Amino acid sequence: MPRQEEERTVASNRRARHDYQILERIEAGIALSGSEVKSLRGGRASLSEAFARVRSGEVWLENMHVPAYEQGEKRGYDPLRARKLLLHRREIERLAATQKEQGLALVPMRVYFSHGLAKVELGLGRGKREFEKRQSIAKRESEREMARAAGRRR
Questions:
Q1: In the chain, how many domains are there?
Q2: Which of 2, 16, 77, 125 is the most exposed place for a label (fewest CB within 10 A)?
Q3: Is 74 left (phi over 0), alpha (psi -120 to 50) or beta?
Q4: Which structural domain, as residue segments, surrounds residue 93?
Q5: What CATH number is associated with residue 66?
Q6: Residues 6+ apart with CB under 8 A from 95
């Protein structure tokens, strides 16, 4: 009987929530080579500079760094290669139209394994301006202070 694996996060993009106002989240599969999957299972990936883009009816994840697998073939391996994301055609068309119409960005939020398959969570978001970033930090700090004060009262 095979073991059912829950979602296990490999890498997350913590700056995405700070730099973008995320309006919608989409789950997509990733087309990977065998050694890339082994490297991801080892928890080795970085989304810090990654972004997604729609090109000729396909969605591509670019600049995601997946280092070479230690026991795998390293010759000819590019850790920053563009990786194809697996989505339905209607989803891709909707994303492309929304992105073009509203000027939104496709930001990879996290890479994880769900039931043995590598997935990426994309956020459809609008870039925050500097003052919006400061406002969100101030709001978060004030909520923390209120929670502390309420905790002290009890």
A1: 1
A2: 2
A3: alpha
A4: 8-127
A5: 2.40.280.10
A6: 26, 54, 59, 87, 106, 124
